[in-house]
Protein backbone atom coordinates (compact mmCIF):
# COMPACT_ATOMS: atom_id res chain seq x y z
CA UNK A 1 0.00 0.00 0.00
CA UNK A 2 2.86 2.37 0.75
CA UNK A 3 4.38 1.84 -2.68
CA UNK A 4 1.04 2.49 -4.38
CA UNK A 5 0.51 5.69 -2.42
CA UNK A 6 4.04 6.82 -3.27
CA UNK A 7 3.45 6.22 -7.00
CA UNK A 8 0.20 8.17 -6.75
CA UNK A 9 1.78 11.06 -4.80
CA UNK A 10 2.93 13.13 -7.83
CA UNK A 11 -0.72 13.48 -8.89
CA UNK A 12 -2.90 16.24 -7.46
CA UNK A 13 -4.07 15.01 -4.06
CA UNK A 14 -5.58 16.70 -1.00
CA UNK A 15 -3.35 17.78 1.87
CA UNK A 16 -4.50 14.93 4.13
CA UNK A 17 -3.20 12.43 1.55
CA UNK A 18 0.36 13.67 1.99
CA UNK A 19 0.05 13.69 5.77
CA UNK A 20 -1.18 10.10 5.73
CA UNK A 21 1.57 9.24 3.24
CA UNK A 22 4.27 10.52 5.61
CA UNK A 23 2.97 8.47 8.54
CA UNK A 24 2.44 5.31 6.50
CA UNK A 25 5.77 5.41 4.66
CA UNK A 26 7.73 6.29 7.80
CA UNK A 27 6.12 3.41 9.71
CA UNK A 28 6.54 0.93 6.85
CA UNK A 29 10.18 1.90 6.24
CA UNK A 30 10.99 1.67 9.96
CA UNK A 31 9.45 -1.83 10.16
CA UNK A 32 11.33 -3.00 7.06
CA UNK A 33 14.58 -1.54 8.45
CA UNK A 34 14.04 -3.32 11.78
CA UNK A 35 13.34 -6.72 10.23
CA UNK A 36 16.15 -6.36 7.71
CA UNK A 37 18.51 -5.66 10.61
CA UNK A 38 17.20 -8.72 12.46
CA UNK A 39 17.74 -10.80 9.31
CA UNK A 40 21.30 -9.43 9.05
CA UNK A 41 20.68 -7.90 5.65
CA UNK A 42 23.50 -5.54 4.68
CA UNK A 43 21.81 -2.85 2.59
CA UNK A 44 18.16 -2.68 3.64
CA UNK A 45 18.46 -1.30 7.21
CA UNK A 46 20.45 1.69 6.01
CA UNK A 47 18.26 2.40 3.02
CA UNK A 48 14.96 2.06 4.82
CA UNK A 49 16.23 3.87 7.88
CA UNK A 50 17.03 6.81 5.60
CA UNK A 51 13.58 6.59 4.00
CA UNK A 52 11.96 6.57 7.46
CA UNK A 53 13.91 9.68 8.45
CA UNK A 54 13.12 11.42 5.16
CA UNK A 55 9.38 10.77 5.47
CA UNK A 56 9.11 11.29 9.22
CA UNK A 57 6.01 13.34 10.05
CA UNK A 58 7.33 14.84 13.29
CA UNK A 59 10.22 16.87 11.83
CA UNK A 60 9.42 16.96 8.10
CA UNK A 61 11.80 17.79 5.30
CA UNK A 62 10.59 20.51 2.93
CA UNK A 63 11.34 20.09 -0.77
CA UNK A 64 9.65 21.50 -3.82
CA UNK A 65 7.00 19.46 -5.65
CA UNK A 66 9.35 18.15 -8.36
CA UNK A 67 11.94 16.96 -5.85
CA UNK A 68 9.27 15.17 -3.81
CA UNK A 69 7.93 13.53 -6.97
CA UNK A 70 11.36 11.99 -7.63
CA UNK A 71 11.80 10.97 -3.99
CA UNK A 72 8.32 9.40 -3.92
CA UNK A 73 8.92 7.31 -7.03
CA UNK A 74 12.39 6.24 -5.87
CA UNK A 75 11.05 5.21 -2.44
CA UNK A 76 8.26 3.22 -4.12
CA UNK A 77 10.80 1.39 -6.29
CA UNK A 78 12.92 0.59 -3.21
CA UNK A 79 9.90 -0.75 -1.34
CA UNK A 80 8.92 -2.97 -4.24
CA UNK A 81 12.54 -4.17 -4.59
CA UNK A 82 12.66 -4.99 -0.87
CA UNK A 83 9.59 -7.17 -1.25
CA UNK A 84 11.56 -9.32 -3.70
CA UNK A 85 15.15 -9.14 -2.41
CA UNK A 86 15.03 -8.71 1.38
CA UNK A 87 14.31 -12.24 2.53
CA UNK A 88 14.52 -13.70 6.00
CA UNK A 89 17.38 -16.11 6.55
CA UNK A 90 16.66 -19.78 6.06
CA UNK A 91 16.67 -21.46 9.46
CA UNK A 92 19.33 -24.12 9.91
CA UNK A 93 18.11 -27.53 10.99
CA UNK A 94 19.88 -29.41 13.72
CA UNK A 95 20.48 -32.97 12.53
Q: Percent of residues in beta strands?
A: under 5%
Quick check: average pLDDT? Answer: 88
Give the SSE order as H and E letters.
HHHH
Number of helices: 4
Helix content: 55-70%
Rg, alpha carbons: 15 Å
Q: Structural class of the secondary elements?
A: mainly alpha
- For the secondary structure, the number of strands is 0
End-to-end distance, in Å?
Answer: 41 Å
- Which stretches of 5+ consecutive residues score pLDDT under 50? none
Task: Summarize the structure in words.
With 95 residues, the protein is mainly α. 66% of the residues lie in helices and 0% in strands. It has 4 helices and no strands. The mean pLDDT is 88.
List keywords for this structure.
mainly alpha, 66% helix, 0% strand, 95 residues, single chain, elongated, 4 helices
Could you give a quick summary of the protein structure above?
This protein is mainly α and 95 residues long.
Note the topology:
Elements: H1 2-8, H2 15-38, H3 44-54, H4 65-85
Helix pairs in contact: 1-2, 1-4, 2-3, 3-4
Amino acid sequence: MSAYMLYNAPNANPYWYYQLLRWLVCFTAAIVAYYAYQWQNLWAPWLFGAIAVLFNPIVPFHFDRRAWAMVDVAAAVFMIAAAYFAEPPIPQRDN
